[in-house]
Sequence to fold (81 residues):
Amino acid sequence: MSSEFDVTETLDVKGASCPMPVVKTKSAVDDLAEDDVLEVLATDSGSMSDIDGWADGTAGVELLDQVEDGDVYKHYVRKTE
Fold:
C-alpha cells in the first residue's frame, strides 16, 4: 500500500500509550467530513494493532495504511460515512 494520501488533518499522539491513541483517533475522526483522511502519528508500537482493530470493528471508518517510520507509527484513516 502507498502512504500517499490527501491528508485532511494530522493528529499527533506521540508519547501517548494505550488506549489514548485510539481514543483520540476516534474523537478526531468524529470531527471529519465524509471522505476526509486523518493521519495519526504515534510512538506506541501497540497502536499498530489497536488502531487496526478499532477501524476493523467500527462502521464509517477505513484504515488505508499503516507505516513504521523509525520510532513513529503513521496511520491513515478515512471517514467513509
Observations:
- The CA atoms of residues 18 and 78 lie 21 Å apart.
- Helices lie at 20-30, 47-56.
